[in-house]
Specification:
9-stranded mixed β-sheet, UDP-N-acetylmuramoyl-L-alanine:D-glutamate ligase, alpha/beta
Length: 303
C-alpha cells in the first residue's frame, strides 16, 4: 500500500441539514444533525485510508473532549495518529456546517486556540517511513512548511491544498510544494484574478516558472492544471449532488495517493475527480468518502 503523510488541520464538524442556506439573520430549523471529524488534512487522510492507502497524520488538537473525539474517530477510520499532538491549554477546532438539499454548504469555523505551534514533537524520519507523497493544507503554516521542506530534502513529491485561509503567511507555502492544488475561490484570492487561465499563469510566474504543477478544482467541471508540458484539464463526472462537504478534501487525498502510487498527473486527476464526485452523492462529510472499487467502477463505466 502506498503511504501519504498528511499535515494540517483536524476539526470536529457539527453538520445541520437545512431547507436552504440563510440569506438573512434569522432562525432556521434543521431537519437533521450529525457529527463527525473534518479539516482538510484529516479528511484527506481518512479518504486515503478508505481508498486502500496508508495515511499518517501530523496535526494538533487541544487537551479537551473535542480533541479526544477527533483522535478516536481518526483511529477508527484507519488513520495513523502517532504524530497528532494533544496540547495542554489549547482548544480544539470546531465547525458548524449548514447543508442545503442541493448539496451546497455554509461553514462557520472556529480554528481553535493555542494550536499555532511549531511541530517540534515530530520525529520526521519516522513520519516519512514508507511515505510516497506528502499532502499539506494551509491551516497550519509552521507544520506545512516543515513537512514540505522535509519532503523536498527526501525527493518525495508534495501536494499543497491551497484553499482559502485567513492566515497571510499561508501564501508563502505555495513556492514550497511540487504540486499546488487550489480551490477556485482560493486561486482567485491569491492571484487577484478571476479568469482561471490568467490566474494559474500568475501563480506559475510567482513560483519562478514550472516546477511540478499548479491546478484548480472546478466542482463538476473537473480539474485544470498547468505544468512544463502545457495547459491541461480532466473533466468531472456527472452525478446527483446531495452534499459537497469534504469533496475537495477527498479530491486532494485521492490525488496525493495516486501520485504516491506513481500515477501520471492526468491519471491522478481522473482518479481524484471520480473520488470527489462519489463523495458528493453522499451525506456526512468524510464519512461519505468512497472505497477504491467504487472509484475504479465509475472511471470504467464513464469510458
Amino acid at each position: 500500500m502506498a503511504g501519504v503523510l498528511c499535515v494540517g488541520m483536524a476539526v470536529w464538524d457539527r453538520i445541520l441539514s437545512l431547507p436552504g442556506l440563510p440569506t438573512a439573520p434569522i432562525k432556521v430549523y434543521a431537519s437533521e444533525l450529525s457529527e463527525t471529524g473534518g479539516g482538510p488534512a484529516a479528511t484527506a487522510a481518512c479518504a486515503i485510508a478508505r481508498l486502500g492507502g496508508t495515511s499518517r497524520l501530523v496535526a494538533r488538537v487541544g487537551a479537551d473532549a473535542v480533541g479526544g473525539q477527533i483522535i478516536e474517530e481518526l483511529d477508527r477510520l484507519g488513520v495513523a495518529t502517532r504524530f497528532v499532538a494533544t496540547l495542554d491549554g489549547a482548544r480544539s477546532a470546531v465547525s458548524s456546517v449548514a447543508v442545503e438539499p442541493g448539496g451546497e454548504r455554509l461553514i462557520l469555523a472556529f480554528p481553535g486556540q493555542g494550536l499555532g505551534v511549531p511541530p517540534d514533537w515530530v520525529d520526521w524520519d519516522a513520519a516519512f517511513e514508507g511515505i510516497g507523497c506528502v499532502l499539506a493544507d494551509v491551516g497550519w503554516p509552521p507544520g506545512a512548511e516543515r513537512a514540505l521542506r522535509e519532503a523536498a530534502a527526501r525527493n518525495i513529491p508534495s501536494v499543497l491544498d491551497a484553499d482559502l485561509s485567513p492566515n497571510p503567511s499561508a501564501a508563502a507555502l505555495v513556492p514550497l510544494a511540487d504540486h499546488v492544488v487550489f480551490s477556485a475561490p482560493g486561486l482567485a484570492m491569491l492571484a487577484e484574478e478571476e479568469d482561471p487561465t490568467r490566474a494559474l499563469a500568475k501563480v506559475v510566474a510567482r513560483r519562478g516558472g514550472y516546477r511540478g504543477s499548479v491546478g484548480v478544482t472546478r466542482a463538476d467541471h473537473g480539474y485544470r492544471w498547468m505544468d512544463a508540458e502545457g495547459d491541461w484539464s480532466s473533466p468531472g463526472f456527472a452525478v446527483r449532488v446531495v452534499d459537497t462537504l469534504g469533496a475537495g478534501d477527498v479530491f486532494h487525498g485521492a490525488y496525493a495517493l495516486a501520485l504516491a502510487e506513481g500515477a501520471t498527473l492526468a491519471d491522478a486527476a481522473r482518479f481524484a475527480n471520480a473520488a470527489a464526485a462519489l463523495k458528493c452523492t453522499r451525506r456526512g462529510g468524510r464519512l461519505g468518502a468512497p472505497v477504491r472499487a467504487e472509484v475504479e467502477a465509475l472511471i470504467r463505466d464513464s469510458g
